[in-house]
Input
Amino acid sequence: MTLGLINANPVVHAKKERVARNDDSHAEDAVDPLEIYDYVRDIRDPEHPYSLEQLSVLSEESITVDEKLGRILITFTPTIQHCSMATVIGLCLREKLKDCFPPHFKVDIKVAPGSHANEESVNKQLNDKERVAAALENPNLRQLVDECLYSSEL
Amino acid sequence: MADSIQWIQHVELYVSSSATPSQQVASVDAVATLLKNDLLTLEALVREMEMYLTTTDSIIRCRGILLLGELLAQLTLKPLDSTSIHSLIGFFTERLADWKALRGAIVGCLALLRRKSDVGRVTDSEAKAVAQSYLQNLQVQSLGQHDRKLSFQLMECLLDRYAGAMADLGDNLVYGICEAIDGEKDPQCLLLVFHIVESLAQLSPGPLANFAEDLFEILGCYFPIHFTHPKGEDDDVKREELARALMLAFASTPLFEPFSIPLLLEKLSSSLPSAKVESFKYLSYCTAKYGPERMAKHAEALWASLKDTTYLSPQSMLSMEPESMSRMNFQESDVMTEAFVLLQEVIRQYGEFISLIIGDNDINAFLISLNQYKGFDDIPLQVKQKLHAVGHILSACAKASAAMCNKVFESFFPFLMDGLGLSVAQPSQNNSYLDEECFSLAKFKFGPLYLCIELIAACKSLTLSLYNCTSIHDFPHQRWCSLLSSFSESLVKAFVSMLRSNVADNEQSAYVYCGVKGLQILATFPGSFTPVSKSVNDNIFLELVSIITSDSNKTFEWTSALKALVEIGFSIDKCLDSEKAASFESTVVEKIVSLISSLDSAIPLSLRLQAAFEIGATRKDFMLRVVRGLDESIDTNFSAVFDHGNHKSDELTIKLLDTYSQKVLPWFLEIGGSEEVQLNFALRIWDKIENFRALNLSPPEFTSISYQDLLGATMTAMKKAVASCSEESQEIIINKASGVLFSSTVFGSMGFKSGSSILKEEGLQQTQNYGNSSGRDEWLTSLFASVVVALRPQTGISNRKMILQLFITSLLNGHVPSAHALGSLVNKLPLETKGIKSSRSLSLNEALDMIFHSFVGTCRDDSTSGNDGSGVNINSLRLNTSRIQLEFNTVIGLAWIGKGLLMRGHEKVKDITMTLLSFLTLDCEAGVSKQFQNLAEVLDEEGVHQLMKCAGDAFHIIMSDSGECLNRMYHATVRPLYKQRFFSTIMPILLSLVVKSESSFVRSMLYRAFAHVVSDTPLTAILGEAKKLFPILLECLSTLSKDVSDKGIIYSVLLVISGILLDKNGQEAAVENASSIVNQLIELTAYPHMMAVRETAIQCLVAVSELPHARVYPLRTKVLRTISKALDDPKRIVRQEAVRCRQAWASIASRSIHF
Output
């Protein structure tokens, strides 16, 4: 196990400006990618005091949603190919969305094709209910996830 | 002599270390009072305290001396003889050597040194002795913070008040001070230190000369002021304060110059922007203080650093507003702003500086390079930044003085003119440039154009400043002036041709901006110094006006031309230039005013009105001229509406009236002075009405919407006009109005037509069922009501009885403005009528009697209301009207009257409230109110319910603020805290009624009234009662949530609850009701009719989660279950709130959300 950082020098991007939406007061607001993005963009990276948005792990375009079927698909891009933090980021996303959406939404989380060395195994791990539940019972992992979700360092 | 035992006790208390600080302060005060009142002499005190002052126990000695010092500090105003002062100061001076009991000695010295000479003062030699002892004995830097502060205060006091004595101390003093202040770090002490250095420098420079370098070495380390611990406990000393004190110290003596200027120049290269800003600030200030001789040797270094900041690496941003994209509108950074301040200061102090700028190779090369760019868009951003900087530098130079201006003009102006391709105009040309001709835009290069405009603008401000302060005008002989006037004609020509180009793309708008700005500057040179001749000046006016009158499609050009004209108008007004004013009036004002009424103009009326108002606002007589134009236009349009039923005129008139009420009247109110305009306006309208009545004309189609709007606009304008008049003018208006009103046969006989057809209409509430009587009558009554609403309380009204009667009658016919007028009347009527009791005057009580007689009587018992004094048979009237409608009107009327009474704090409001409440509880089967029985028989159940609802809503009228009437603008009498008072009287009554009521409908109506009262009461009043109110509020919510139409009320009640929950005291009240609050809120999170209700309910739930853990923990599961449903809400905002709420509640147990 290496003690150093996995990606010591990540590229930091500027935060995009938050647009206040002027909603039509009568129509229903469908869940759209931007809404989901607004929830997850400020999750802190497990390694660095930057948000996933700043590290360009996530973007609005990488999220798709189908409200009728109740499906959300998030594709994220780890900063480097063999990032062992990819699973932690995925866990964070899953935890966050579980808090923010009613249980009838099915959330799929994937790494972007070609962005990770063990793409398939990471995807499989992230979408396996049992393994996610088991991972979150691990106190160390749990703490790490909570720190990312509720951190005020940003 | 006071009882010695008593004061000795105080002394003992103070000296003993066991007493609390407040006891000690009290004992000092007690002894000081004795001394002040001569019940105890200072001598006796000192003698008695001998033991404490001389004991070897240093703690007690310290306290003793401190007591004496503090007592003296309290006695600064008591005269003392010189012997006591002498011995006391001698004592304290000696004690300065006693480091164990130092504080008392410093306090004592300070107290004595601060005395004024008329109550006995320390002599110079004694002060000198203090200073010597200070310098010899005090090791300031080894003391604690408070003692250091005191000793610095002592030194400051010595330097400020005994400067002469201090100067004698010579080098010793400077040396001592250097030692004392070296290494000080506390902000409060530093503030004193900086001041000490400043005062020291003010002493004769003798002693300082040798030590200037040492002293500055100590000072210099503090620059720039920077707090390493930003949130220390010394927040009371601001960084700015310290920085300013240090700046004063830096600039205190020119002797610092050899050390400070190099330091500051060096700090300019710092990478910290704040350090740069500070350096520039200090440099500007020091330049002003050190004087030109000393600064001369730094000139080159200064210019180098200035050039570096402003020109070589300018830190300015193009402002991002789309409006100004096409202009050179740069946002300068602070550093740049300060740099320009310094530049100005240096030029002002040291004129030779300018030759550095003029001779600067970079700048000259830049000017030449500008010629390679043609249009505005060809210039890259970087070059634009430089252009902006150079423009600023040149204009700063030119502004400094006439001589500088000459130099700048000589060196740059001809070159710029060459760049623009302009030559000295031939005087013989007869206005040919106003014909279509000459310049093509391509010829004008933007760079020289911009600089040229900057230079002319600088000239103008120079002229303005000289114009204001000197009477000797030799401008024409100045070089710049002759240069400018020789080119002026071709410049004007060039500017005009820029405006005439018909291309409206981005690039051109930069030229349009320049053209307008150039013309504006040339036309605003004051008085006789204008470089342009009168005819050229007139041509400028004509050109700008022609833009206004011709084309509103090119909005940018139109607005900037208008702005320029307004600026010109203001400058003419400021310079008292009568000749120019005359030509401005004849060319501009007349033309614009004629626009108001022109029918076939291509420009929309709103723009024409805007132009007229803005031009008028430059000067009072212009505005009067505009007002005349408006009046005429209103006249013709009114006639068009009334005579011919012209619909188009409706809209025009409404716009005209709006301009009146929203712009013209407030403008006159602001500038104050005569109220002729308001008075005339009101009288004119009444004249109009009178004429129409005489002709027996009535407005056609009075039910149409635009007609109602017209009436509304007229009423608003009338109210505003009347409200801004004085009592006398108001009397004239009201007399005129009542003359018109009562001369009418209809009103004279008071045989009011009452709409028998109202029955058919069944239009509930206060809709315009008054409309069935003739439209003209409605006009008359409504306008009259608006006059009455706006009257001042002191205005005398004749014919009050008739007026009152009129309003009562028309109110009962459903005319709401009459209700406003009645409310205003009872709010403002005098309690007693003074003087002779004429039949026409009316006191409040009489008025109320009349009102109650007509209103309350009607609903109580039909048989009691027969003929009343005025001979008006309301009874007959009532029979004709639909019963239910009448009762509605009564309720609304009572509400407004009640509001009027409540605001002035009259007790009769109770009667009205009780009547309203009896309407509210109408439904009670048990026959709570027998007097309603016959009423209930007449009305069907539906009608009764509507009426009760209306009575509930009456409480909203009473409590809410109205824009229509009864506010400060319309001179209402407002008792402070009237809402609170009403709240506390009505609450117990409502609550007991709620308890008593058996019918659920009655209860729901009571809750309705309750909700209105609570939501308009200030939160602080509610917080006091929160504990009692919570159950009712919750009950109220659950009752009201049954009816969709009550969503607004629910929302306001919910806001009250959230207000309580966010307050600390309110939270205590909420604790007891936590579970029922949560239950109610949970229901509302699914309230389907209004998003804001759901959102607020969830926010309230978040607030509840802050309550004590033991209370809310059991509710957690329930809340979380509900909230997970809210996560699926159709509205995004609600979903987001739900996420927050879920997080808040989940985290009160643990991080995990499982339940």
